[in-house]
Design goal:
By secondary structure, this protein is α/β, with parallel strands linked by helices. The protein folds into three domains: about 180 residues, FAD/NAD(P)-binding domain (3-Layer(bba) Sandwich), CATH 3.50.50; about 120 residues, FAD/NAD(P)-binding domain (3-Layer(bba) Sandwich); about 70 residues, Enolase-like, domain 1 (2-Layer Sandwich). Helix content is about 25%, strand content about 30%. It has eleven helices and 26 strands. The protein has a five-stranded parallel beta sheet. Strand 11, helix 6 and strand 12 form a beta-alpha-beta unit. The longest helix is centred in the last third of the chain and has 17 residues. The N and C termini lie far apart (about 45 Å). The structure holds flavin-adenine dinucleotide (FAD). Flavin-adenine dinucleotide binds next to helix 1, strand 4, helix 8 and strand 22. The site of flavin-adenine dinucleotide (FAD) has 36 residues, from helix 1, strand 4, helix 8 and strand 22.
């Protein structure tokens, strides 16, 4: 493939990184970064954390406007790609300049995800927390004393709940699963956070789904009601893969890509929240929702495109969540099939068979970093190796 022009759809964490990495790799052709949101690309993680307290939108900007000029990257803001014409190698986009057809040699889908909208009556009364505009709306709503219900006890719902409590609002978290963050963490860490949130004054309603939202209350499947004059919907996301699907690409839990992040069309790649990739560690197709995955995948796509290589994506996943003054960090990818060992207060090793596949830590960045290094290697990691780095003297040396 002659590579003279690359189009990136989605100017979020991964899309911007793809543009940056293409230039860093020495690509001198045309780069067009197309984003549906207004303004410059920004970081999402602070939206449920510092931004709610401080409201500093400019602190979230990832690169200034001058960066795009200096690096000769065409950034089309408030422009939505509405179709991909694969036969012509063009995207059809609509923005302030009207409708455009733009040609590509390689296309990168970095369209992220949108909030899952479960079948709850009255969802129009709930607010979302996905974009800066959503966060600004929520922040404005938090200027008045509120009784808040958060639907969803995952990372984003709990980060928001912790912030809302800190600001003095009454908060209930409604989670259909029997424990918090059930998809992402071990039962021990779920239980730890349940105690913390209760200590902070949040009401936790676990194992009950919300069925109806009214302006003053949320109704639960068991008929109970939770008074609320502000409801946040944080019940997970769906990958934005509609464009890919309409273009005839293989889509299953996001845009299906191989281990090199290439879709069923060799000229089209996908990354980040919208991509379901073949994970060489497990042999399964997985989709990750993290800044690390989106940006690492962007670097890999850029390197492969510019160097003409077909390197597989093998980076170790890692995650973090800040809830009040507790930083949860996860190195690796565990699951509900894991055996979990509590190594010390705030350190859990997750094993699949004899191998440690993930390590969870609370406010222990040194242990997290060392666990990450070990798990990122090619060799299986045994429990005693993690025990050694989690030992108090090793932790003190962090
Ligand atoms: C409130 C919040 C807190 C988070 N906290 C953390 C955290 O602590 N740690 C962590 O690792 N991750 C966190 N995440 C997740 C992380 O932000 C995402 O995993 C990451 O942003 C994914 O990057 P991405 O490039 O795939 O998608 P995004 O950054 O979501 O960007 C996708 C962009 O594509 C645009 N787009 C979609 N369709 C089109 C189209 N047709 N045309 C043009 N543009 C389009 C969207 O408008 C969006 O701007 C958080 C997310 C949220 C919302």
């Amino acid at each position: 493939m002659t590579l003279a022009s690359v189009i990136i759809i989605g100017a979020g964490q991964g899309g911007l990184q793809a543009a940056i990495s293409l230039r860093q790799e020495g690509f001198s052709g045309a780069i067009t970064l197309i984003g549906a949101e207004p303004g410059l690309p920004y970081q999402r993680p602070p939206l449920s954390k510092a931004y709610l307290l401080e409201g500093k939108a400019e602190a979230l900007t990832l690169r200034p406007e001058s960066f795009f000029r200096t690096k000769d990257i065409t950034y089309l803001t408030e422009t939505r790609v509405e179709g991909i014409d694969r036969a012509a190698g063009q995207v059809i986009a609509y923005g302030p300049q009207g409708t455009m057809r733009l040609g590509y040699d390689a296309l990168v889908l970095a369209t992220g995800a949108r909030n899952l909208r479960p079948p709850i009556e009255g969802l129009e009364h709930a607010l979302d927390l996905r974009t800066l505009a959503d966060a600004a709306r929520l922040r404005a709503a938090l200027a008045t004393k509120r009784r808040i219900a958060v639907i969803g006890g995952g990372f984003i719902g709990l980060e928001f709940a912790a912030m809302a409590r800190k600001l003095g609002h009454g908060v209930s978290v409604i989670e259909a699963a029997p424990r918090l963050m059930a998809r992402a963490v071990s039962p021990a860490i779920s239980a730890h956070f349940a105690r913390l949130h209760q200590d902070w004054g949040t009401e936790l309603i676990l194992g009950h789904a919300a069925t109806r939202i009214a302006p003053d209350a949320v109704t639960l499947a068991n008929g109970g009601t939770v008074p609320a004059d502000l409801v946040l919907l944080a019940a997970g996301v769906r990958p934005n893969s509609d464009l890919a699907e309409a273009a005839g690409l293989v889509v299953e839990n996001g845009v299906r890509v191989d281990a090199t992040l290439r879709s069923s069309d060799p000229a089209i790649f996908a990354l980040g929240d919208c991509a379901c990739f073949l994970d060489p560690r497990t042999g399964a197709h997985i989709r990750l929702e993290s800044v690390q995955a989106a940006t690492d995948q962007a670097r890999l796509i850029a390197a492969n495109l510019v160097r003409g290589t077909s390197t597989a994506y093998g980076a170790l996943p890692w995650f973090w969540s800040d809830q009040a003054d507790i930083k949860l960090q996860i190195a690796g990818l565990g699951g509900n099939d894991c055996t979990d060992i509590l190594l010390q207060d705030g350190v859990v090793a997750r094993l699949r068979g004899p191998d440690v596949v993930a390590v969870e830590t609370l406010n222990k960045p040194g242990i997290h970093i060392r666990a990450r290094k070990l798990l990122a290697g090619n060799d299986p990691v045994a429990l005693d190796q993690i025990s050694a780095i989690a030992a108090p003297q090793a932790a003190g040396a962090a």
